[in-house]
Amino acid sequence: xxxxxxxxxxFSATDKPEPKPVDEVEVPIEDEERFMAMALDEARIAGxxxxxxxxxxxxxxxxxxxxxHNRTRALVDPTxxxxxxxxxxxxxxxxxxxxxxxxxxSTIEPCPMCAGAIVQARIRRLVYGARDxxxxxxxxxxxxLDDPRLNHRVEIVEGLFQEECSxxxxxxxxxxxxxxxx
Length: 182
Ligand code: ZN
Fold this sequence. Notes:
This protein has helices at about 30-50, 80-95, 110-120, 160-180; strands at about 55-60, 65-70, 100-110, 125-130, 155-160. With about 180 residues, the chain is an alpha/beta fold. A hairpin with a 2-residue loop joins β1 and β2. It binds zinc ion (ZN).
């Protein structure tokens, strides 16, 4: 054996290995738009309920399995994000906590908690509208869904109805600022 150094060093957080490509699933654009429009409707419902306006839809084989919006205030539950709620409902309906063939549509880039749950559920595809530069864990702050150190990778599609998805958020926070709420 030459030298005392191991040939491989452990990964550190600053390493940026190339993510492995995932096989892409073909989904008709009309379906993509229909599901994201549904997620947007959910986001708007959330806003009307004074919840941060994020909506999510979970589909499998072109059918809607679950739809939800943020309900952290209503349920007094910090984990009640839209994505978590559709994963819970989807798993309940399927009788399986693995949702390997499912696609999750979310209006906003998922946070670390939701991205973690997407990995746990082995979700196949994630489609989201707008990035969350301050909290997103798919592209913005972290890249949890295609990190080669994790043994599950998710096909990621971003930017569908980006304008609308981010507009719903901006309007919500602008309105709250204007009325002195936070
Ligand atoms: Zn979340």
